[in-house]
Write a structure and sequence with these properties.
about 270 residues; alpha+beta; PvuII Endonuclease, Chain A; 8 strands; about 40% helix; globular; disordered N terminus
Length: about 270
């Protein structure tokens, strides 16, 4: 999957930056994107600025630059750094994702173990880190973000096209995964029933299911990755669980499972 981003700026886009600098009254280092916006046109929208800077820069990136008050010099330096980085980065298709998964576990395991008692929470964060670091958007090939922990029914957003994803980590042996693929379906935990129903109705995001084997209760080795498009999941696929009893700490809370019956094999 090809990565889209700063590395695909055209020569004309770079010339635009130089022209903006040459037309400015003050020095290069003193001009921010916010001021540049005023120079271009008082009521110019972010979308219009995006068009001026070529279509491969994302609104999220421009918004971040405006908030950080970056100067043109800093932006040009970032362009050069990002281009050098992406030229040397190994394409996702050429990576051994099994080794990448183990690397993420090795680097981040102790951090999450110190933060959380729940092995389920630890494995969920590790799965999201893995997807964030080594997965690219299936629609446009761009990098994806990692959203804040606790964001309901959403873990990642593509920085290129805005497509949304949720990562589901689950334990499965290679043989168990092969059986799921052969049968064409499997079940996974779907969190709170009503929240999940709303997410499914609104076609909020695609699912990326990361399957792994555990060691001492924590994810250790990758088994495979499946992708389930949002439009392939309907309300009928959301199976409610029995509400928790009145004596439970979260009395009345109702979870659910999701029947995944239409998916694409990303890696196995």
């Amino acid at each position: 999957m090809k990565e889209a981003g700063f590395d695909e700026y055209t020569h004309e886009a770079r010339e635009l930056f130089d022209n903006f600098v040459n037309q400015a009254i003050r020095g290069d280092d003193d001009i921010t994107l916010a001021e540049l916006k005023e120079q271009l046109e008082e009521n110019m929208t972010l979308a219009e600025i995006k068009e001026q800077l070529e279509e491969n820069i994302t609104l999220a990136e421009i918004k971040e630059q405006l908030e950080e008050n970056m100067t043109l010099t800093e932006i040009k330096e970032q362009l050069e750094n990002d281009t050098a980085f992406t030229e040397n980065e190994e394409p996702t298709d050429d990576k051994n994702l099994f080794e990448c998964f183990e690397s993420v576990i090795h680097e981040n395991r102790s951090h999450y173990v110190s933060m959380y008692k729940s092995k389920s929470k630890i494995n969920g964060e590790l799965s999201e880190d893995f997807i964030y670091e080594h997965f690219r958007c299936l629609d446009c090939g761009s990098r994806i973000s990692k959203e804040r922990p606790g964001t309901k029914c959403l873990d990642h957003i593509c920085v290129g096209c805005g497509k949304k994803y949720q990562t589901k980590g689950e334990t499965k042996s290679p043989n168990a995964l092969k059986n799921c693929i052969r049968k064409g379906q499997f079940k996974t935990n779907g969190s709170a029933y009503k929240t999940r129903l709303n997410s499914v109705r609104n076609r909020v995001c695609d699912f990326i299911c990361v399957f792994y084997q555990k060691k001492d209760g924590v994810a250790n080795s990758l088994t495979g990755i499946l992708h389930i498009p949002a439009h392939k999941i309907t309300e009928d696929h959301v199976i409610p669980c029995k509400p928790l009893s009145s004596s439970a700490r979260r009395a009345g809370w109702q979870g659910c499972n999701i029947l995944m019956s239409s998916f694409n094999v990303v890696y196995s």
